[in-house]
Amino acid sequence: MDTQIIAQLIVNGIAVGSIIALAAVGLTLTYGILRLSNFAHGDFLTLGAYLTLAVNTLGVNIWLSMILAVVGTVAAMLLAEKLLWSKMRSIRATSTTLIIISIGLALFLRNGIIFIWGGKNQNYNLPVIPALEFGQLRVPQNQLWVLGLAIVAISLLHYLLQNTKIGKAMRAVADDLDLARVSGINVDRVILWTWVIAGTLTSLGGSMYGLITAVRPNMGWFLILPLFASVILGGIGNPYGAIAAAFIIGIVQEVSTPWLGSQYKQGIALLIMILVLLIRPKGLFKGTI
Asked: With contact defined as beta carbons under 8 Å apart, do 215 and 57 qualify?
């Protein structure tokens, strides 16, 4: 195949991988700290995209729209924590119960989005910007913005986890929640911060996905398999592993398209995960924060 086409697909894969990485970090944090496999995570990503759309269509700048969407998405996640997850933790609900509840929450969010915004594809109100040309390679400027925003967000997350008190507390809770509690760590505060970080990254991921594709009600649902594949492949609970795995999955998905067609992208994510787990059952990296 023409190397130009391969290079173009790799660029597309990096952009998609950036979005998967942001959302996968939020998903792996909620599992690593709260032991919650949240199947509603993809629909919170969709909510972020639609809140950005709602604000943007009022004439607000796209970047400010993204920030306001983050506030709305975090608020929705904290509401779910208050009404659902905190109560489930208090009765020590099983992981199966939590999974079923998260699937129900996902369906509730998706149908709520369809009820409010309708089921058709929509686009942000953005000026038409010509793609940048590097030789024969054409790179849409939105893809560069997506990659740049992802790098900034991931860098800030790294600083927070490694150099702040709350970051160290989050790592302690991920290692052993009960030990962290008796050590004097405010676990409720850590849980609050976990949802704030997860909501921020997930909302940004959804907003950025809307920059490179249409905003549609099932966009997050179609990303949930690559998200879980990234989390498992990178080592459950390891945000850095999830980021690396997300880029691998994003690039391989896009590069496989000419041979397998776009309808099998989700299957590629699952296949990569299975092949790696056959060799390394715990994933590519150690599975803790």
From this structure: no
- Its pTM stands at 0.89
Mean residue pLDDT across the chain:
86
CA 262, 268, 270: angle at the middle one, nearest 5? 135
- Residue carrying the six token digits 């040309």: 133
What's the whole-number mean pLDDT along residues 263-269? 75
**Within 13 A of 78's CA, how many CA atoms are on the CB side?**
15
Q: Which of 271, 218, 280 has its CA nearest to residue 249? A: 271
Token duo for residue 236: 């459950």
Residue 158 pLDDT level (bands cut at 50, 70, 90): confident
Give CA–CA dist 142/132, Å, rounded: 10
Q: Give the 3-state secondary structure of residue 132.
A: strand
- Of 80, 84, 73, the closest CA to residue 198 belongs to 73
Check: CB of residue 187 under 8 Å from CB of residue 198. Answer: no
